[in-house]
Amino acid sequence: MANPGNQQDLTQGPIARTLLVFALPILAGNVLQSLNGSVNAIWVGRFLGEKALAATANANNIMFFLIGAVFGVGMAATILVGQAMGAKDMVQAKRVIGTSATFFFGVSVVIALLGLPLSRHILAWMATPAESLPLAEAYLRIIFMAVPFLYMFAFLSAILRGSGDTRTPFIFLMLAVLLDIVLNPLLIFGLGPLPEMGIAGSAMATLVANGISLVAMILWLRHRRHPLWISRRENHVYMPDLAILRALIVKGVPMGLQMIVISLAMIMMISMVNAYGVDYASAYGAALQLWTYVQMPAMAIGAACSSMAAQNVGAKLWGRVDATARTGVVFNFLLTGALIAPIILADRLTLSLFLPEGSAALANARHLNHIAVWSFLFFGVTFVVSGVVRATGAVIPPLLILGVALWGIRIPFAKLLQPALGVDAIWWSFPASALCAMLMSLAYYKWGRWRQATMLAQDPREVAVPAEVPSHPSSPVADRTPEPPSVSANSADHSSVPASSPR
Questions:
Q1: CA 258 to chain centre
Q2: pTM over 0.85
Q3: Which tens digit of pLDDT belongs to each residue from 77-101?
Q4: CA Rg, the chain, in Å?
Q5: Would you say residue 184 has pLDDT above 50?
Q6: 311 and 163 in contact (C-beta within 8 Å)?
Q7: Domain range annotation of the chain
Q8: Which N-terminal residues, if any, form the signal peptide (predicted)?
Q9: Phi, psi (5° rounding) for residue 8?
Q10: How far apart are CA 257 and CA 249, in angstroms?
Q11: How distant, in Å, are the alpha carbons of 8, 15, 77, 308, 389 from that of 324?
């Protein structure tokens, strides 16, 4: 078959090289997104002031929560598509895409309609500083309007990555980022015929850029007749398949809860920081801009490991699954560690980009950065290991580990030690919780029963028999480990899932 979709077969080839080549477009995309956020923060922070920067820091936590709310369903769809591609079952891949697309679009519209009137109440609940509240509300209302575009763009990108195609999402992400960067000053300051929108202009730039890029990607996929493009005669796949929908929810909700647990913890953390005033809130917002760069390699390698593991699970190449996890952890330490040192050494220069000249918040930002930035070494290991584990369908243990790390360690650490350490208790809670999460994730990977989990119960009436199944001559014999036997409904990994539920 021709390969107009830039897909890679992740079940073949050397593990390290295949993983790195597959991850590079994801990493480049993360760089673009972070660069976009940083450029926007520079415009807002340096030209609209600290109040505006604190406003965007609060509103962006809500945006992260909104994306996290459906992240799990997107991940479940990605894994199901990856497993179907590994098994050479294109019919099943399109069923997953159709059901997932209907779900994503419906949910995004509901969230947008609910969020518009509730924006101010949400920000007030977060204890957003009073002087920043009107600015944050103006920004957040437009972000809610952008949710359908953000959701569908993220969904299409995730599906393409699950199929082994990271180049196409990167190309259209680059388009969105370039448009956003160009439109930000035009809409903030009202240059030419465009209205002066202030901080709302930054959010409007995000909406317009993602909308244009989404439409362009859909048209491109249709024009190129991408292997996963759903033609008119296949429109029936948009009617939700109940078995797939149940798998998306049963497996996706716990994965989505992980993002919600993270985002709620972030909201709790910034609420604690807000109590110390605008200087600390803007310092934290500036440090967050740097941290997005530090976590990029881990997120790219982790996402690549998840897609790669999913295809190899579908192909029953368990040796390659383990090798993927080991290689991902090594890459995380090498790439993340290589970023931390220069960011520490040059943090005065980099942090000052996001704060007004002579800002009192700069010293606070440097101090908290020195304490907390090291936690991303541990975060990366957790991200990689959890991505591999989830590729089989084991979604509950990573959620429990994350919940314990954030709400059993980070939040109590930050709250209970403030009387003794002051605001430093908040900063030290990051490395403390990240280290514990890493240790728990590695323990589950070694001793847990994640290899026995499955994503979707197979209907024997609908098993697709591919015309050709490559023998993968380049794969070592050791990679062809037999598939582990199915576990019962009483498995420790899925004790709450009934036996008839999709696994």
A1: 11
A2: no
A3: 888 888 887 777 788 888 888 888 8
A4: 22
A5: yes
A6: no
A7: 15-452
A8: none
A9: -115, 140
A10: 11
A11: 15, 6, 20, 7, 11
